[in-house]
Amino acid sequence: MTKAHSNILGGIVCCSLVALPFALQSNKFLAFILGMVLINMIWACGMNVLYGFVGLMPLMYAGIAGIAAYGMIHLTRAEGWSFWVAMPVASLCAAIVGVLLGLPSLRLKGFYFTLCSLVIQTAMTLVFSYFPKYTNGDTGINQISPPTLNGKELNGAMFEVVLVLFALAAVGSVAFIMSRPLGKRFIAVREDEVLAEAVGIDVVRTKVLAFFLVSLYAGVGGCLYAVYVGFVSPRAFDILSSLAIWLIVAFGGRGSIAGPIVGTLVLAPLPYLLQEVPWAKDIILGVLIVGVILWFPGGIYGSLFKGRGVRAAVRKGDADRMVDQRV
Amino acid sequence: MSDATILVLVSMLITGVLLGLVFALVAAGVSIMYGCIWLPNASNGQVFVLAGLLAWSLTNSLGWSVLAASLAVLAAGGVMAWMLEFTLIRRLYEAPNRNIDYFVMTLGLTQIISGVFSVTYARYNDQYELPKTIEGVTFLGPMPITNTRLFVIAVAALAIAALFAGLRYHQMGRALRAVFQNRDAAALRGVDVKSVYRFAFILGTVVTMLGGLLYAMAYSFDLTLAWTMSVTAFAIMIVGGPGSIFGALVVGLVFGLTQAGVSVVASPTMATFAYLGAMLLILLIKPSGVFNR
Fold first, then answer.
1. Is the pTM of this model over 0.80?
2. Minimal Cα–Cα distance from B1 to chain A, Å?
3. Within a domain: residue B35?
């Protein structure tokens, strides 16, 4: 696709997205699915920066979203802050935590970092469950009041329009970052850390910055999730959520702007459409994960629009990174 | 010390050794797969529980004895592993970055298996318990211990000893260790690397299932055990060093005794935190593990 094509497509998508919530008002269920798709899109944008462009697979992603969500809930409920103040503060805190949790990536690569992030995620889920002071444990927190705008509680189509704006901002900001030198530095670090260091890129700073940015996406998504759904429990932010977001990015096509969008549109509605058969969700998620690994390492966007060469390139690109990973 | 304290201590010790041996066995299975094929099998916990569940079905519905059921489950596990190897695992043997691919793929398998559990076993029961393998109770001094648990300890110890000996002296075991150390050099020396991979995957799966069967004989279990076991086995493998059976044994015993000890004074969750902490620490300090060359 050429740049002009992308711009036109982007314009159409933006306009129709803002109009969509109003069109869906007759069907609350579809409107809710739209809302969840949009929140997942914010998450997928962040995951894509780290997994697609920096080349790290953070399985503690949902945990970071959880920290922001619980922080925001605490600030609004116990401290009486407005959502619009609490969300940025909680997301910033989550981003700082995300940077700290991302520090192992400075030493560990590939599988070892992923395993480390899995450990962190498991620990975070345990913390959410066993320290109920802020999280109410496994019972979860319900009746989270929606944010107010102009003195009125956000609900109905207006809420989804706000989500649309956030999702567009997320996609737009990723596209913007990736067009800047910072984006190029991300890709350079993904391709070859040693080489990146040699041409003068501060790899440590780049990675720390990446974790900070990415955790912001996770945090904002987490806060919006909490107020939109109105209920959070540790299960919403466990390893399966991290994997589901990872799958959206990997299935859609990592390392491109459009890939995660395609992935979100296809995968995010699935759990809600399959509500009648909850077990099918798990099995489909699993089959898709296996399928992506075996047949679509470049994602469906990559395979459909960029030809079969992508598949080989993805494997080869990774091969170069793997040399110093063996222990 | 009063008699009661001694009893608590001895019972803790026995529980710890039993848990430790089972942990070590599962970790050895995971470790063989990772050391050889470079396959970090995240679905080991599900396979572990699957073995117990299948044995439960055979004993409860068909009325088989526990031993017969266990042998059947192990055989079925071997066939299942062979089929998995044939359909999925072997496709990535050549991929250079396969450890992360395999890791994610087995996380997918975990999802599939737990989805299948939730439509099948989760509908019958919360807790599963096998009938006694061997009737009766033996007294170690004042301390009673069921014969089943003694049997479990003996089988687990024997299995680990057999793994040691097999890897050291049997031709296939030596080929396996050669591939651990350097797959290219092993190939040059005439080792058929792919058949070693296949063997390692099947052996690792069967060993994991044996661990699951032994655990199910000694304790009742539920479906949430799967994820705890996966994490524990990974923690033991990372701390002990991938590919090291000795590391798996030592660290497994330490973890088992820790869990038994902590459970007396605090909730088992604390033990899980301790494992996770130990794994993180080792990952950051010495990712090749404590007991690796």
1. yes
2. 34
3. yes
